[in-house]
Design a protein that fits this description.
Layout lengths: L10 E6 L3 H7 L5 E4 L8 H13 L7 E6 L1 H13 L5 E6 L2 H7 L7 E3 L2 E5 L7 E2 L11 H17 L5 H9 L6 H21 L14 H13 L8 H18 L7 H11 L14 H5 L4 E2 L2 E9 L2 E7 L8
Parallel strand pairs: 1-2, 1-3, 3-4, 4-7
Antiparallel strand pairs: 5-6, 8-9, 9-10
């Protein structure tokens, strides 16, 4: 299926160089810029390079930027679009499972500041987000599993129709049934859209989408500042963070004992990590600098049960270190 595009000289395609064949097939007639879309290049310098390219192309305030790639791409292109000439439109074409169920939806844009995740950015909603389910079949196994963690996270937050159990069944199968996966991807996207519509600027409800991310971002900071043999991807770090959130939920009496063991068993079946890859005492400082930290406390997402979460201020996560 070819992307539907309007005949316009104002469309500029910025894409992850890893999806070039998809871009050439879908957008042969528009100016294109390939970028390196990884965490090391998720910086203000890359965003400025995108802005310079738009200027060189003669893009005016009627420009529309197409962001084609995973979450790093949509984050950076969305940020560039929000600041170029005080703001132009952008459209997301998420090409990874993670971006289709999470990063490509919701309007969060931004870049890392040194080793700290997404510290610079704005909320700017895309004019549209267009999903091409068929691209998931081309993903490397580990990148696919990274997105699987965000899919499971969404259904831990809301589990209507037993979508969490359905997702575990699909993701733990020896061969992925993409036909069965497609409605789950759409369902997860709708859940996030509904939450974002109610709380677009993360004043309250939208914070539940940060489930697993306090520890995940701290793990990523540690990996960026220390030599690690096998660094976790973002989704893998989120998986570990969710298990940690479940353990803390049990310790606080928010969840019944056994929740973390149940989730760990499911995540392992889906080929996701569940154990902390670094000493917890060494990531405490990073968690204090997390965007979700306010007044010395962290707005931490806890799990009551699969399908129901809550947010609670926690002043000292160190006491829950293992």
């Amino acid at each position: 299926m070819k992307a539907s595009t309007k005949s316009s000289k104002s469309i500029y395609v910025i894409y992850d160089r890893n999806v070039e064949s998809f871009v050439l097939a879908q957008f042969p007639d528009y100016p294109r810029l390939a970028i390196i879309a990884d965490e090391d290049h998720k910086t203000i310098d890359t965003v400025l390079d995108i802005c310079r390219w738009l200027l060189e192309q003669g893009a005016d305030r009627k420009a529309i930027c197409y962001a084609v790639g995973g979450g790093v791409t949509t984050d950076m292109v969305g940020f560039a679009a929000s600041i170029y000439k005080r703001g132009v439109k952008y459209v997301n074409y998420p090409t990874t499972l993670l971006s289709q169920v999470d990063a490509g939806i919701g309007g969060k844009t931004g870049v890392n500041l040194d080793a700290y995740k997404n510290m610079i950015g704005v909320t700017k909603f895309p004019a549209d987000t267009r999903i091409f389910p068929e691209v998931l079949k081309t993903l490397p196994e580990r990148e696919f599993r990274s997105g699987a963690a965000e899919l499971l996270k969404t259904f831990i937050i809301e589990n209507k129709s037993g979508n969490y159990e359905k997702a575990v069944a699909v993701l733990s199968a020896e061969t992925i049934d993409f036909k069965a996966l497609e409605p789950l991807v759409k369902a997860a996207g709708k859940i996030k859209e509904k939450i974002v519509e109610k709380d677009p600027f993360e004043a309250d409800l939208r914070r539940v989408l940060n489930l697993g991310h306090t520890y995940a971002h701290a793990i990523e900071w540690y990996q960026h500042t220390h030599e690690t043999l096998a660094p976790l991807s973002h989704g893998e770090a989120v998986a570990v963070g969710i298990i940690k959130a479940a353990k803390i939920s049990e310790a606080l009496g928010v969840a019944k004992p056994g929740l973390s063991a149940k989730l760990a068993e499911d995540f392992k079946a889906c080929h996701l990590p569940v154990d902390m890859p670094c000493p917890e005492e060494e990531i405490q400082e990073a968690m204090k600098k997390d965007k979700k930290a306010e007044g010395g406390a962290i707005n931490f997402v806890l799990i009551k049960k699969i399908g129901k979460v809550t947010i609670q201020e926690i002043h000292d996560l160190h006491k829950y270190s293992e």
